Amino acid sequence: MHALIVVAHHDPQSLTHSIAVQAAAGLTAAGHTHEIADLAAEGFDPRYGAADQRVHRSRAEPPADVLAEQARIDRADALILAFPIYWWSLPGLLKGWIDRVFVNGWAIDYGPDKPVVKKLRHLHVHLLAVGAADESAFERHGYAKAMRTQIDHGIFDYCGAKVLTSELMLESESGSAQAHLNTARAIGQRLFQGETVAG
Questions:
Q1: Mean pLDDT of the residues in the chain
Q2: What domains appear along the chain, each with residue ranges and CATH number?
């Protein structure tokens, strides 16, 4: 089976990138394939512009960069997002990727006189979010629940995609890096456990 790993961090030496690499290594060890989409290195433009609005409003053909990202997801059996937590949420680069790629007509289908049709029910999603704060800060202030509400439910469930992993990899700047790398590799190894290839 095949996974698309989307990394949203400008620094290739970051823990976020290392987590993505370890998830990929786990997939390989389990006999699966993967593609890494490094949004910063590839120069993906996260700015939602006039062309994107035309897609939303009038079902215009999406821009070429958006079509390319949708094709990557369409080739995948699972989507892994590896990202740093900025201000208790997604970084702008990843949020813009979602804004531009998960569009009406592809991720969902709705209009003024019809209910939302969720078009990504086949997609399994795994979120690997790297944060510097500790778990008590996330729980005490409700940030962990807010992230799951906004991202897991508000984005992916709205499109029908099923979030199977929602991992907060916290205290990333105080000695937990190796544990997070081990977790990422283990997630990669068991990503498709129990699933069989049709055919």
A1: 94
A2: 2-190 (3.40.50.360)
